[in-house]
């Protein structure tokens, strides 16, 4: 088996038929799909059990005894996988029809431990916007560069299965991908980039990751702590500092403000980070961030709570109405 595709599912009855159907369109057929139902309260598991009897690809249908979150659920899939390479897919997303064939050809040439590729953000209207990984990676020469510049999303990557030996997900409902990606990159000996959009991320305003909640910002903080605890001390310090800038000073604070936290929590997040990284604003990787994120971080540095609250409202409006 060349590819194992791991698909965690939770209350996905309205989306899973499209996801499984799109997989039948793959031009490359040496793959298995592992669906793990994470204790859904709807008919997700029943639909999967029915579909598995009719699709042309090999399927494994698993079910958690209770809702455990996407981190634990993905780990179950990794443990059951048999493919030489692992891919991850959310239950409402899909791969382009030529994705696996393009990856197979690329891997046959490069024999990579990790392949990064581009993706689309897809909307109900049919509109798609390119999510580029390859552009940032033009500047990458070392594993540290990849750690710093990688997006925190496993479905935008393909991994040699043996790279996952000894790696476990934290028990989080958000930011679980962010926790393990630097660890995986640190172990890789050969990383490559396929500059082609292979994956479709279906943007839903009501999805778990897009609904304001204090649990989300707390998950970002726990995720980053988990990463730092697992990494080799002193080897990737500047990259990890930048990873924290992206996921604590931007990701956690953005989600904290969206959840309506008070100024005291906002200040505490910044102060805790600056105890470890007092000169974070001088990190060399900040220049690779988009202008709007650099502006956000400038206001974080100055602890301008009310200006950042205005930013959060504009950010939400742009996502919901401008489709950016």
Question: Could you please describe the fold and organization of this structure?
Answer:
This protein is α/β, with parallel strands linked by helices. The chain is about 45% helix and about 15% strand. The protein is built from 11 helices and 9 strands. It has helices at about 15-25, 45-50, 70-80, 100-110, 145-150, 175-185, 215-230, 235-260, 265-275, 290-300, 305-320; strands at about 5-10, 30-35, 60-65, 85-90, 95, 115-120, 130, 155-160, 190-200. Strands 1, 2, 3, 4, 5, 6, 7, 8 and 9 form a 9-stranded mixed β-sheet that branches. A hairpin with a 5-residue loop joins strand 6 (about 115-120) and strand 7 (about 130). Helix 6 packs parallel to helix 7, helix 7 runs antiparallel to helix 8 and helix 8 runs antiparallel to helix 9 (about 265-275).
């Amino acid at each position: 088996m060349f590819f194992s595709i791991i698909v965690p599912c939770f209350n996905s009855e309205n989306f899973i038929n499209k996801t499984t159907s799109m997989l039948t369109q793959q031009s490359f057929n040496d793959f298995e799909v592992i669906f793990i139902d994470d204790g859904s309260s709807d008919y997700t598991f029943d639909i999967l059990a029915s579909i598995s009897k009719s699709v042309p690809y090999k399927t494994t249908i698993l079910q958690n005894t209770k809702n455990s979150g996407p981190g634990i659920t993905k780990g179950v899939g990794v443990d059951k996988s048999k493919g030489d390479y692992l891919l991850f897919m959310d239950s409402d997303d899909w791969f382009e029809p030529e994705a696996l064939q393009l990856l197979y050809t690329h891997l046959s040439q490069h024999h990579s431990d990790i392949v990064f590729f581009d993706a689309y953000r897809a909307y109900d209207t049919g509109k798609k916007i390119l999510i580029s990984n390859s552009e940032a990676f033009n500047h990458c020469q070392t594993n540290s560069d990849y750690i710093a510049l990688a997006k925190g999303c496993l479905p935008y990557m393909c991994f040699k299965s043996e790279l996952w030996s000894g790696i476990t997900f934290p028990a989080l409902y958000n930011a679980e991908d962010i926790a393990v990606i630097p660890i995986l990159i640190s172990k890789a000996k050969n990383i490559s980039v396929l500059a082609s959009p292979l994956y479709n991320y279906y943007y839903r305003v009501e999805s778990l990751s897009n609904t304001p909640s204090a649990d989300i910002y707390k998950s970002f903080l726990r995720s980053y702590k988990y990463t730092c605890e697992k990494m080799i001390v002193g080897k990737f310090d500047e990259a990890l500092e930048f990873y924290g800038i992206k996921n604590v000073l931007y990701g956690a604070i953005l989600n904290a403000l969206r959840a309506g936290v008070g100024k005291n929590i906002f200040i505490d997040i910044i102060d805790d980070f600056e105890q470890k990284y007092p000169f974070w604003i001088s990190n060399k990787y900040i220049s690779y961030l988009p202008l709007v994120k650099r502006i956000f971080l400038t206001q974080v540095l100055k602890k301008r709570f009310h200006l950042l609250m205005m930013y959060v409202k504009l950010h939400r409006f742009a996502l919901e109405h401008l489709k950016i």
